[in-house]
Write a structure and sequence with these properties.
- By secondary structure, this protein is mainly alpha-helical.
- 40% of the residues lie in helices and 10% in strands.
- Helix 1 crosses helix 6 and helix 2 packs antiparallel against helix 7.
- The protein starts with a helix and ends with a helix.
Length: 163
């Protein structure tokens, strides 16, 4: 988990992250509704790529990771938070409601024979750390209010940048 967290932090602070988010501008839009202090976000509203970059990069990743029964290997679950995109710069950082945990498969996270992303063969074939970091990042995007319902699928778009 610590290696994956470090990979996420490294990835979002690269020029490549900035360039790829900006290149994906047409895919950046809201699939949630939220409002705060007279500001409204509607499904279908376009996101500004630089604001997406800023609200992701400035986030303090203070989340918990849980083993969850019934979560298939290679997937994650967790609560969807309020839109950090909308509230970033308007609401104090520590008051923006986020989802505070991510749940993964109950597999033995420290074992090469039963790793988080599958068995040892899958581990060797799929570069588990990168894939798991991408999955963790995807779930973190849900935690801060990005979703993939309808036309826009921001967590998948940004996950592809981190992988």
């Amino acid at each position: 988990m610590l290696v994956c967290m470090a990979l996420i932090r490294m990835a979002v602070n690269t020029d490549e992250f900035v360039n790829r988010v900006k290149a994906a501008d047409a895919q950046l839009g809201s699939s949630v509704e939220d409002s705060y202090n007279g500001h409204n976000l509607k499904v279908g509203d376009k996101y500004d790529a630089q604001r997406v970059i800023d609200c992701v990069r400035s986030l303090k990743y203070d989340f918990g990771y849980k083993k969850r029964v019934g979560v298939p290997v290679g997937t994650g679950v967790g609560p969807v938070g309020k839109s950090r995109y909308l509230r970033y710069g308007l609401q104090p950082e520590n008051e923006i409601p986020i989802g505070e945990w991510i749940g993964f498969s109950t597999g033995n996270w420290g074992s090469l024979n039963d790793v988080l992303f599958g068995d040892y063969f899958t581990y060797m074939q799929s570069q588990t750390y990168a894939n798991t970091a991408g999955l963790m990042f995807h779930e973190h995007m849900h935690n801060i209010g990005f979703h993939h319902v309808g036309q826009y699928a921001v967590p998948y778009t940004l996950q592809g940048v981190v992988l």
